[in-house]
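can u do me a favor
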């Protein structure tokens, strides 16, 4: 609580005036230092001191008597007599200085123990005066100090209502009382704000404060117990917290575990006055969120809890249509809670990738080797999971498109050339198809005419016309509509479109399907 600095200190004029004023006030009524009795003790702990101080009161003008009384008797009576003597001092003696939780305290030493001397000389201060009763508190007595009063409740804590009311009325919070519960107004089960509850058992009072209202310069426990003295103030109190989030799902019962206890290091720091109300709630909030991640079947995004409602949880994301089925399927099989900071597909994938990554990929491509290959790309830190899934989806689309094309047993050179360009278009798109044509190295007029026909169909003919002769350009422009028909065709229509393009290019060759069917 306090320690002493070395070396004396001379009193300033202000300090002298204050100490002398206290001495004179004490001389008017020295019995004010005897606590008012509110207990049921068989013998009063302050009985002996009271008798000595009563005698001191009758001899308050006898300096010689006061001098003797300041050296004999109880610590409390000696401190009273020594303090009263200050009124006779022309100049105060040098002061001792103690560094306490209340700041530096300068006081006049005497025969009584230092705590008594400070408590009596600062009796006007409801908090500092408690120094004079520390020994009694260590022996199990409960004392309360407020205003001009000091009350002893004996060894059974029975806090005076006046004390509690004085502490509550001096708080900077706007509490409302309902059935013995003081609340800031945002602590009901419907609230989305995390809150703490400070319960004073013997006072029959519970104080609830939410994260929205908590202040960084207030500690409820310290404020309430500032004028309370006992062996251990924390024994009369209990501290709880409720982790709250906004409800975003439809649950039969709340899946949010709000019974997460406050970590001991946080509660101890709070009781010791090292952290404020706001800091305690912040620490608890972070701790509770970590605990939620250890649960199962719980979905949280930011400050919204979806409980076990996977549909509501998933609808919060901005996903692409093709992602919905594989992601939702994987989430549904996840055995751990998904607690995310924001509705981000990337964050979601990072949470489940290690255990569900391969399953998600396989749901899309349905190919074991390709699944392993794509999964390895993430392990090698080449791409992020979502890009791998997008690549898997593109591969699946490509395979689906190619699976609609017929199998051939014989393709004439012109037909094979056109078929390869069509497959390039269906798998890699227009840009890659044009690049393939640009890299073409052939002098075959029919192939070049077909190539230009693809360029015209893809809207790139004008910029590359100079590479082709007049005949190739004319035939290519003529073939444009047949090329477009081929690019859009699937199944049997594709084979017929390819045969028609071959015929229109001037070839009389026939395409033969794998089943032996010859097209005309």
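np, heres the sequence
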């Amino acid at each position: 609580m306090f320690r002493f600095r070395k070396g004396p200190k001379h009193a300033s004029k202000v300090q002298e005036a204050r100490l002398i004023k206290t001495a004179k006030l004490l001389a008017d009524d020295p019995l004010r230092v005897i606590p008012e009795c509110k207990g049921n003790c068989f013998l009063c702990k302050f009985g002996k001191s009271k008798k000595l101080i009563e005698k001191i009161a009758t001899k308050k003008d006898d300096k010689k008597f006061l001098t003797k009384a300041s050296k004999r008797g109880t610590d409390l009576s000696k401190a009273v007599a020594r303090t009263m003597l200050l009124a006779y001092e022309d100049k105060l003696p040098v002061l001792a200085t103690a560094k306490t939780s209340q700041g530096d305290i300068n006081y006049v030493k005497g025969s009584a123990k230092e705590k008594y001397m400070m408590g009596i000389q600062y009796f006007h201060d409801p908090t500092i005066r408690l120094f004079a009763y520390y020994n009694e508190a260590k022996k199990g007595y409960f004392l309360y100090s407020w205003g001009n009063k000091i009350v002893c409740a004996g060894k059974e804590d029975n806090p005076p209502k006046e004390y509690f009311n004085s502490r509550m009325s001096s708080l900077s919070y706007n509490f409302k009382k309902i059935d013995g519960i003081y609340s800031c107004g945002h602590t009901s089960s419907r609230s989305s704000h995390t809150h703490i509850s400070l319960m004073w058992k013997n006072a029959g009072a519970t104080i609830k404060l939410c994260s929205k209202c908590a202040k960084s310069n207030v500690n409820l426990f310290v404020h309430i117990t500032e004028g309370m003295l006992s062996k251990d103030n924390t024994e009369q109190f209990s501290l709880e917290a409720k982790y709250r989030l906004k409800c975003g799902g439809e649950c039969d019962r709340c899946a949010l575990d709000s019974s997460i206890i406050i970590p001991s290091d946080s509660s101890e720091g709070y009781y010791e006055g090292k952290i404020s109300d706001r800091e305690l709630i912040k620490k608890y909030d972070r701790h509770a969120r970590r605990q939620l991640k250890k649960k199962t079947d719980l979905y949280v995004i930011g400050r919204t809890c979806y409980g076990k409602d996977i549909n509501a949880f998933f609808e919060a994301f901005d996903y692409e249509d093709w992602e919905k089925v594989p992601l939702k399927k994987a989430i549904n099989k996840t055995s751990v809670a998904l607690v995310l900071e924001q509705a981000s597909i990337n964050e979601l994938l990072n949470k489940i990738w290690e255990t569900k990554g391969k399953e998600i990929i396989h749901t899309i491509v349905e190919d074991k080797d390709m699944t392993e290959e794509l999964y390895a790309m993430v392990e090698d830190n080449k791409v992020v999971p979502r890009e791998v899934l997008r690549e898997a989806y593109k591969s699946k689309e490509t395979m689906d498109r190619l699976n609609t094309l017929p199998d051939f047993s014989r393709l004439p050179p012109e037909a094979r050339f056109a078929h390869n360009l069509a497959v390039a278009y269906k798998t890699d798109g227009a840009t890659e198809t044009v690049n393939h044509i640009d890299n073409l190295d052939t002098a075959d007029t029919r192939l070049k005419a077909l190539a230009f026909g693809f360029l015209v169909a893809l809207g790139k003919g004008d910029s590359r016309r100079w590479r082709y002769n007049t005949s190739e350009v004319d035939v290519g422009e003529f073939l444009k509509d047949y090329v477009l028909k081929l690019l859009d065709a699937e199944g049997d229509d594709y084979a017929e479109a390819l045969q028609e393009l071959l015929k229109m290019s001037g070839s009389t060759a026939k395409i033969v399907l794998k089943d032996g069917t010859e097209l005309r």
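Residues 404-513 form one domain. hope that helps!!
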